[in-house]
Protein 1
Amino acid sequence: TAISGCGPAYIFLMAEAMARAGVELGLDPALSERLANETLFGAAALLEHAWPEVDAQELRHRVTSPGGATAAAIGKLQENELIAIVSEAAKAAQKRAEELG
């Protein structure tokens, strides 16, 4: 439940965040939303095609040029502990699912 049941909402929230960031950077809202969604579609398709031979971590490394824009963005996400935040969210979902029985 915490991963596959709630997981789509995690991805939808990421799409919202990416689209909002695009608007903050000056993009038209409709274009920003489309770019965010298409990026997530493409990344999911790439992951589906590559997995299980290549996992998400390896794909991330392959698209992250050292010292580039992607590296700067990933560094900020890691600095703000995105992985720990997602882990805590999943734990909260699991706890609530158990409470609901």
Protein 2
Amino acid sequence: MTPKRPHIALDIDGVLADFTGGFLPHLSRALGREVREEHITTYSFEEALRIPREVWSPLWAQFQHRVYHEALPYDGVVEGVAALRDLGRLTIQTARPDRATEATLAWVERHLGPIEVHFRHGVGKYRYDDAVDWFIEDSLDEVARAEAGIPILVDRAWNRIGAPTGIARVRTLLEAARHIEARLRSERT
């Protein structure tokens, strides 16, 4: 009997797409000060940078299209996705809003080729009905909210404080693929 191929779910922003790299130079210019990724110590830009909501909202409205359209994949993402495809079925689970659907699908196709994308704005991304075996995420809130799947946390400045113990933490998708492969191999023996 052939073993079941696991369902591996990937987050997009902070895991596949470097949403900060393309956005921070624009934000720095708009704020008149340098903003680097290490300044983003929570998943909320306005909270991490202490930007009042009345200042943040128009800035985000002005630049959010750049995040969805122009973000580049993190280094090694294409190779990591290929390695993960060899291990199982891949889907992308994203909390991006409905207005970003077209840009998100175009980004995924342009950078990664065909992958099924599930939009989960306003609800948990890793639900029982998705039958997720593993998920690769950068948001501690999403890890805590997950109904199903074994989490792997991609190390980012905004998730270094408060992570639950026992969660695998990786720097790249290739590391995540190696981790999953080792676990699958150990389960088969």
Protein 3
Amino acid sequence: MPNAFIPNEHDGVNDTFGPLFSFLPERYQLSIYNRAGLKIWEGSEPWDGTVNGKPVPEEVYVYHLKLYNYDGGSRSLTGQVTVVYR
């Protein structure tokens, strides 16, 4: 998982945050939490750094990723991602 991204560049490079796979899972669920521990975003596609259409503040966020395999198994990963603006 990347540890930072720049959502305001819109140049097609590092504009969103999401998993980079060396394999193809059946699906995944990505949740983003702020410093207070509140879930601010959830989806099955990369996060664009916004909440309700507005850019989030530049800071560190916690992510929780759940991967679902074709055999019915799953795996969870938790980490941090930093939103950076230029």
